[in-house]
Amino acid sequence: MDGETFSKQDCLTAYLTTVLTRVLDVPVQRVINVVNYRSISDRPFAHLNLAGNSIFMMLSSVIAAGDVLSLAAIARVVRASITRARDPEFAEMWMTFGSYYMKRRADVDRFTWRVPEENEVLVNSNRV
């Protein structure tokens, strides 16, 4: 679409997603981005001087079956998920829920681990 702006990372992710779709038995229909949330909010969990990993996993919307080989469609889905993740209100809600859920799991000696499903790809980049 006219006026859209994609980062180099959006385009690289879209390209690699199409390559994986071409070689795997199942098309990639969702991208999970590891998003840096530091500095998007003034809340304590996002302060610039906070030690630790200031990231969370953001799932994209589902890539339509007809778009799994479209660089533009995939880049658009990736950019939309990152834009949403960087919204301070969304990030606060996401981090509040995530913290609550992870603490509940830790309290019963369980851990939380998210791995991609068969039709998903996980992308780790702080340059988004």
Q: Could you explain how this protein is built, in words?
A:
The protein is of the alpha+beta class and 128 residues long. The chain has one domain: Chloramphenicol acetyltransferase-like domain (Chloramphenicol Acetyltransferase), CATH 3.30.559. The chain contains three helices and three strands. It has helices at residues 8-23, 71-85, 88-107, and strands at residues 30-36, 55-59, 120-124. A three-stranded mixed β-sheet has the order 2-1-3, with helices on one face. α1 crosses α2. The longest helix has 20 residues, at 88-107. The protein is globular. It starts with 7 loop residues before the first helix and ends with a strand. The model has no long low-confidence stretch (mean pLDDT 84).
CATH architecture: 2-Layer Sandwich
Mean pLDDT: 84
The number of domains is: 1
Number of strands: 3
| H/E topology pattern | HEEHHE
Strand-residue fraction? 5-15%
**Ends: how far apart?**
20 Å
Which segments are poorly predicted (pLDDT under 50) over 5 or more consecutive residues? none
Q: For the record, what CATH class applies? A: Alpha Beta
Please, how many helices? 3
- CATH fourth-tier homologous superfamily: Chloramphenicol acetyltransferase-like domain
User: Which shape, going by the Cα principal axes?
Assistant: globular
Estimated structural class: alpha+beta
State the helical fraction: 25-40%
- The CATH topology comes to Chloramphenicol Acetyltransferase
Strand order of the largest sheet: 2-1-3
Major sheet: 3 strands, mixed
Radius of gyration: 16 Å
